[in-house]
Write a structure and sequence with these properties.
With 441 residues, the chain is an alpha+beta fold. Helix content is 42%, strand content 21%. The chain has helices at 34-44, 46-54, 67-79, 88-91, 95-101, 110-118, 122-138, 203-217, 234-243, 255-275, 323-332, 337-348, 359-384, 394-402, 426-437; strands at 9-14, 17-21, 27-29, 146-153, 156-157, 166-168, 173-176, 179-183, 186-191, 222-227, 246-250, 279-287, 296-305, 308-316, 406-410, 415-419.
Length: 441
């Protein structure tokens, strides 16, 4: 039988050879690493717990896409780099993502996903925060002696008429101001807040809930509250002292603090004039602000560089066995790593996609990004610790391990993903798959 060429697309020849293309090949996916995500998800029980927390009040006879299938679809797509609901118009037909989500047919459409997000409520957000906390506890089979809770807020810029939008003078834009809480690399809280409130607006209540939950799980654990000066509030400090919670918090400068720190600041300036370069000295003293009921220990970092003085203050109730510098460098400065964790979510997992007009839907999107981050961290803990991706960003993990081209062959009995025999990271892929398979569910 003669060959048919009416579907062939011809391009300019390359030397002697003709260049042609046609759409007659097997199904291909760019998400060949999706089964790794599904395997990690099953070991963590993450999407199952999230689906249980969210519930489903739809009429069962009319349900085509279950809550767990939708949650898996959204989380896996976020990790794979698909940030918008519109992406799912084509992504719902991706065989690799279908297999990872446990579906034999098409996944949910963008309109279905939009309806799913818009039915979210504050009670669901609270329940999903419970899932994040349970994942943190599950990651510690041996109770830790100390848990340091890092608090910080960041901005999510808004370019529409979203509910709760307000102009923020510092960021010079309309935005939300979500509150994040981390314990090491573990996300515990991602609470969306309007930007017309103080960043520490709900910090005290969130801290109280976390301390109560941590002590219920681990009665002997030491809890430390750590934050920058934006969270230095007298009620929070007083609450920590009354509940036996440690704190190390930045303290805004004022004229009294400047006077008390003057000897160390002048000494650092003298050393800079004498030796050049950056000079750092540390000191500590007792100080009481006007609204404080008593004096508290304050650590001062007196730094002088070619740009002039750079003085910082930290208030704490922790024991300073290593001296003021040990507390500042070894404890307070460690909170800076939290900013990298926030960047992982904002830049790598699209936590800033608050484009829904509904506030609760945007809160759900923030939490879905947080759950996607938890999935990545779970995979890192179970299978990547001894690899070159042990400290890699989510975007690097995505490009190295998950965005793998593959030919898809599927029938009623199995789905096969045929990846290139020359793939440069196939040894790492096999190693991660084996490590995940060895984990108990």
């Amino acid at each position: 039988m003669p060959k048919r060429y009416h579907n062939v697309i011809r391009f300019t020849s390359s030397g002697r050879r003709r260049v042609e293309a046609e759409f007659t090949g097997a199904e291909v996916t760019a998400n060949g690493g999706a089964p790794l995500l599904a395997e990690a998800d099953r070991r963590l029980g993450l999407t199952e717990a999230a689906a249980r927390a969210m519930g489903d009040d739809r009429r069962r006879k009319s349900v085509v896409h279950s809550t767990i299938s939708i949650v898996r679809q959204r989380l896996h797509a976020l990790v794979l780099g698909h940030e918008d609901l519109n992406d799912h118009g084509a992504l719902r037909r991706d065989a690799a993502l279908q297999a990872a989500a446990g579906r034999d047919g098409e996944l949910a459409s963008p309109s279905t996903l939009c309806r799913f997000e818009r039915r979210s409520s504050p009670s669901e957000a609270a329940a999903l925060h419970g899932v994040l906390f349970d994942q943190f506890v599950q990651a510690h089979p041996v109770p830790p002696k100390r848990v340091v809770l890092d608090f910080d807020a960041t901005d999510i810029l808004l370019h529409g008429m979203q509910a709760g939008r307000h102009w923020h003078g510092h960021y010079r834009n309309y935005c939300y101001l979500p509150l994040y809480v981390f314990a090491g690399r573990h996300l515990l809280v991602a609470a969306l807040q309007p930007s017309d409130r103080d960043a520490a607006w709900r910090a005290g209540a969130v801290l109280a809930l976390l301390v109560k939950a941590l002590r219920a799980e681990w009665p002997g654990v030491e809890v430390v509250f750590r934050a920058d000066s934006g969270f230095c509030r007298r009620r929070i400090l007083r609450w920590c002292e009354s509940r036996g919670v440690g704190y190390v918090v930045g303290l805004p400068s004022n004229s009294v603090l400047a006077r008390l720190a003057a000897p160390a600041v002048e000494a650092a300036a003298a050393l800079h004039r004498l030796n050049g370069g950056k000079q750092r000295l540390f000191d500590d003293f007792e100080y009481a602000a006007g609204a404080w009921p008593r004096r508290r220990r304050v650590v001062v970092k007196a730094e002088h560089t070619g740009l002039g003085p750079n003085t910082r203050f930290v208030v704490t109730n922790l024991d300073m066995a290593d001296g003021p510098q040990g507390l500042y460098d070894g404890m307070y400065c460690e909170r800076g790593d939290m900013e990298n964790r926030i960047k992982d979510q904002q830049l790598g997992l699209f936590a800033d996609r608050a484009s829904s007009s509904d506030f609760d839907a945007n809160q759900l999107r923030l939490l879905l990004s947080g759950l996607a981050y938890t999935l990545i961290e779970g995979m890192r803990r179970m299978a990547l610790e001894a690899t070159e991706l042990a400290k890699a960003s989510p975007n690097t993990i995505r490009l190295t391990l998950l965005k793998v081209g593959a030919v898809v062959l599927s029938n009623t009995r199995r789905v096969r993903l045929l990846m290139s025999r020359s793939h440069p990271n196939q040894a790492l892929f096999r190693r991660v798959a084996a490590a995940l398979a060895a984990q108990p569910p």
